[in-house]
Design goal:
Blueprint (H helix, E strand, L loop, with lengths): L3 E8 L5 H14 L5 E8 L5 E7 L20 E2 L10 E5 L9 H8 L3 E2 L4 H8 L1 H10 L7 E4 L5 H11 L4 E5 L9 E3 L5 H8 L6 E5 L5 E9 L3 E3 L3 E4 L7 H5 L5 E3 L6 H17 L4 E9 L6 E7 L9 H8 L4 H24 L1
Parallel strand pairs: 1-2, 1-5, 5-6
Antiparallel strand pairs: 2-3, 3-4, 7-10, 8-9, 8-10, 11-12, 11-13, 11-15, 13-14, 15-16
């Protein structure tokens, strides 16, 4: 029986491209090579597509994928050249132009099946302001926040934060992930520099009221029309907050899977995750991130990440493994979900 082609896109234009390379390398180690041949393509920061390696068997553990330092101009191709009939694309891309609907729209135009969120589910969860408005309309609790829109004066935003929120607050670009551009602010005096940092990455900013060292809890959604939600896991971090270095460089995290919470709290978290996934047109997968107050036990949804990290120490594959689905089986399941979604989309367009 001929193998299926799995196309892995990685790298990308966003500040999260380093995480993407790590995720892609880990995916390549876990693929079922009795079923798939994997073709890899690297997307540069400038947006060029480069033909990378082809894998028919599990690569060496010390595999070094093509990246920003090793990419060569003679490997550049037209984006349309990735097309292969009946192939399935796994866009292992994080952040803007990876999980914001743009690459999904490109793949749909190319009539390619792909893993993960649709254009709608990607775009509605990538922008933190939009997703917060959806969660609010669905009755899901969130921490108080202030939104900064393009054209808003920093002085006006600063005054609104002082009037509506309590410090500390977290200043976040609305369309970034992996904790890129996020700053913890303890007073108004620090707000200007934090907003300036966030504005490097986006012109839409969210300022959220902080909790006092809350439980940071995550659960995984898997499915299209039928969705399963994992038991939640808890991040026990060593620093002030779960920042980029803790996630991807220091590897200084302790993770409890399942989280050490009451049965009632676990049930509520899984319930809110399912509501949020369906409200944002979830498809394929998502990591659902929550805060749980240590003082009151209140549960707050933080965000949905529709292309979560797949590094060796990322939470999403760990959560699925706890539910009995190892990373190899998870990748195969995600490919099947991508094919199912493609067939439904094509059937709707044929009517």
């Amino acid at each position: 029986m001929a193998k299926e082609t799995l196309i892995v896109l990685y790298g990308g234009r966003s500040a999260e491209r380093e995480v993407s390379v790590m995720s892609a390398a880990n995916v390549l180690q876990a693929v079922d090579y009795s079923r798939f041949t994997v073709k890899t393509y690297f997307i540069t920061q400038a947006g060029d597509f480069a033909r990378s390696a082809v894998f028919d068997a599990q690569p060496a553990a010390d595999l070094k994928l093509m990246d920003s330092q090793s990419v060569r101009a003679d490997s550049f191709i037209s984006p349309a050249d990735i097309y292969e009939k009946d192939a399935v694309v796994f866009p292992v891309l994080h952040g803007p132009q990876g999980e914001d609907g743009s690459i999904q729209g490109f793949l749909e135009t190319m009539r390619l099946a792909y893993v993960g969120p649709s254009v709608l589910s990607a775009s509605s969860t990538m922008d933190k302001i939009v997703s917060k408005e959806i969660f609010a309309s669905s009755g899901i609790p969130q921490v108080p926040y202030v939104a900064m829109y393009p054209g808003d004066a920093i002085s006006d935003v600063s005054a609104k934060v002082d009037a509506q929120l309590h410090y500390p607050v977290f200043v976040k670009p609305a369309n970034m992930g992996s904790s890129v551009g996020i700053t913890k602010v303890d007073s108004n005096a620090e707000l200007l520099s934090a907003l300036t940092e966030a504005l490097k990455y986006d012109d839409r900013i969210v300022i959220e009221e902080g909790l006092n060292q809350p439980h940071e809890v995550e659960c995984g959604a898997l499915g299209n029309s039928d969705v399963t939600i994992t038991l939640p896991g808890e991040v026990v971090n060593s620093g002030a907050f779960y920042d980029y270095d803790e996630k991807y460089k220091n590897n200084a995290l302790t993770i409890d899977v399942p989280a050490k919470l009451s049965a009632d709290a676990i049930e509520k978290i899984r319930h809110y995750a399912e509501i949020a996934y369906k409200a944002t047109a979830g498809r394929g997968l998502a990591r659902c991130d929550f805060f749980v107050s240590r003082e009151t036990g209140e549960i707050f949804l933080n965000e949905l990440n529709t292309i979560p990290g797949f590094t060796a120490f990322s939470m999403y594959p760990m959560l699925q493994k706890q539910m009995g689905l190892d990373t190899t089986a998870l990748i195969t399941k995600l490919v099947e979900l991508g094919k199912e979604a493609f067939e439904k989309r094509e059937a709707h367009l044929a009517n």
